[in-house]
Inverse folding.
């Protein structure tokens, strides 16, 4: 399978499995990621997802060999490049990066909500070196997670930054030793899954909306999300478990 899909309790693992091509994205990869995301989003028992990769590279981005051979469609209608960068999602998704993530590989990672990286990782947008631009979200999302001048330098020079630098500037949430990115991402996912899944999704949605709204509009959006949550079983379970001094049992309903 070029994209592996695995369930671990409330966690979905989506694994790029094209190590011989440094997990470069062709149309088959894009379709595989989209199908995996469809399965993840549609499964009520899965609360958090992890995007990871087999082999020494997370992803080298677009498959230039496939492009030169005439395969120009590296996207899907629903998800855009890689089946993910333009995708509307509801559930949290973590990128576990344990090797270079360059060009479209960086854009795949940026399309996720959180990034766990090992010291073997590098991030970069080298498109200008091939007379291209990072049009799959890199130029939009990179300056949101890095200082503007650092993002500008990366984009204009095409030179990557190390995982340590990405962590220092806040792009990477957790920095680990090589080989440990997936394990740490699972730990992070489990921490998220300790919380009420519907509240997590509403929180994610409210935070992302706040990036494009003023304070008043952002708070109004969050209040509307709270009203919707109040009609759920988990909304009643949280306070009840606190009063009864026991761990809550979330149903995602």
């Amino acid at each position: 399978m070029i994209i592996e899909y695995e369930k671990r309790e409330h966690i979905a693992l989506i694994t790029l499995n094209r190590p011989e091509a440094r997990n470069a994205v062709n149309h088959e990869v894009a379709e595989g990621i989209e199908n995996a995301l469809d399965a993840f989003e549609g499964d009520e028992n899965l609360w958090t997802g992890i995007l990871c990769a087999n082999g020494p590279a997370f992803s080298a981005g677009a498959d230039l060999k496939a492009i030169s051979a005439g395969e120009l469609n590296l996207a899907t209608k629903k998800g855009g490049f890689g089946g993910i960068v333009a995708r509307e999602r509801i559930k949290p998704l973590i990128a576990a990066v344990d090797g270079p993530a360059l060009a479209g590989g960086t854009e795949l990672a940026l399309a996720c909500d959180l990034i766990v990286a090992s010291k073997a990782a590098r991030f970069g947008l080298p498109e200008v070196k091939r007379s291209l631009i990072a049009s799959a979200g890199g130029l939009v999302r990179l300056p949101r997670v890095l200082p503007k001048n650092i993002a500008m330098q990366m984009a204009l020079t095409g030179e990557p930054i190390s995982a340590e630098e990405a962590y220092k500037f806040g792009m990477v949430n957790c920095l680990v030793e090589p080989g440990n990115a997936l394990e740490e991402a699972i730990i992070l996912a489990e921490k998220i899954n300790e919380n009420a899944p519907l509240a997590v999704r509403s929180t994610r949605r409210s935070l992302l909306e706040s990036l494009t709204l003023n304070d008043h509009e952002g708070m109004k959006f969050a209040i509307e999300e709270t009203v919707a949550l109040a009609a759920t079983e988990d909304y009643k379970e949280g306070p009840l478990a606190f009063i009864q001094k026991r761990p809550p049992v979330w149903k995602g309903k």
Remarks:
- The two ends are 33 Å apart (CA to CA).
- Residues 3-193 form a domain with the 2-enoyl-CoA Hydratase; Chain A, domain 1 fold (CATH 3.90.226.10).
